[in-house]
Amino acid sequence: MEPGLVGPGPYRATRLWNEIIEHFRAGMPLRKHRCRFKSYERCFKASEAVDCLHELLGSNQNFGPEVTRNQTVKLLRKFLKNHVIEDIKGRWGKEDFQDDGHLYRFPPSSPLKPYPKKTSCGMEVIKFPDWNEPKAGTSQEHIPVKSITMNSEMWYKRHSIAIGEVPACKLVFRRELTQTNIGEIWKSMTLSRLQKVLGLDSLNEVLDTKLVNSKHIVQNAYNVNKQGIVTLEDKSKELPHWILSAMKSLANWPSCSDLKQPTYSGFERDVFKTIVDYFGQMKEPLLTFHFFDVFVSVLGLLQKHSKAVEAFQISCLLLPPENRKRLQLLVRMMARISCNKDLPPLSESVRTRTLMVQAFSRCILCSKDEMDLDELLAAKLVSFLMDNYQEILSVPSALKSSIEEHVVHLQRVQIKYAGADTDATFPPPSFCHQISTDEFEFQKATGSQEPLTALLEEIATNKEISVKDKKKKLKQFQKSYPEVYRVRFPTPETETVLFPEKNKQKPPILMWALKKPFQPFHRTRSFRM
Prior knowledge:
- The chain is mainly alpha-helical.
- Helices cover 49% and strands 5% of the residues.
- Strands 1-2-4-3 form a 4-stranded antiparallel sheet. Strands 5-6-7 form a 3-stranded antiparallel sheet, with no helix packed on it.
- This is DEP domain-containing protein 1B.
């Protein structure tokens, strides 16, 4: 059975755990072994289990070939602790599994983890300012109101909808948005986009949206330097200078402006150990415990590269600014060290890239409840981060532009008709659904032609503009929208009705002037006669 990709969604880590157990039980060869002059049926050696599970994880799309044998041994220790396997004497519960010849077997039934029941967070309703409330100290009487009244004939000609009176309308002047309003708009639209990219009906199962700080999102989007690194308002949360110097020395090896060249062998390993120790003593990972489920869900999109990058971009935008800055600096250093051929090996037995993943994966992502697949999931995420850190740790430009355009739209003066209970300029959130091609073409035609037809009728019936200007505007409209124009004026005769000819009688003096040039001709003729 070929293991498939477990997509984003709630309890993804638990689903992965159960899937690995099922495939391991199904794929692990069982046979008779002898130990201390005694035979044991349907069991396996520890080293055989490591071989089988390592091959299974390497071919699994959710983990990949970067899984090491050491990580496989750690996972089998957790299997022993959780009674997924037991030794031939039935003992389990300890993490003393070793890659050796000890014999193990499966219990009658390996316990699959139940899906935890999370308390529902409820869908958060983002409150926006009431645009219809006047500012303090102002009165609605001072807001200009323009009433429009049309007779039934003009209403029928202009809209071809119904006969009646046009309701009065008024200009609504928007309140100036506060920083709090803008922050809530950023939060609402950012979470909405994340939910759409992940393909989830709700974010409630992977994220408590009430704990998302809108100020963090805005600061991460705007307070950045030329390199795209977040600038902190609170300087006390910056990395210590000595850690920054150590990180720069390895990232820019062998040229570094902060430190002089070392005079002893192994200097670079000591610097690296100092950095590892500093990040290892943090109480919470850089991606925070709160966002663990979100980032694990994003890992389910790795086969769709562009979607995975966008989902990581948005998720990293939710982090506290100090965490985002440390993540940017750390991952950039890791990527540069992995590609630096001039840097001496930092380990005798492990490749530099693998060493980076093993050393820093836990300080980047781990669960507060110490989940069994933390290490494998973190390694997968860190590897993807190192390969795409420049894109992932930058501000998503498309999201930023759409939010800024929406904020500008809300600040414009709008027209509101009497009797309208809600503001049409800011509709409630809605979800897209797929429609047929015929329905799309119908909506395209009706949605665009109706206002164009109304505009053409307005030009045709407007008596305040001159004939010359009217002809000019009609020509422009005909050139831009020939189909709409052809429906209103199917023949030239229907167009000439707008411009009736006026019979003007020429004055006699003009007729006399026309006859005057022919008088010499008459004289010549009479002379010959």
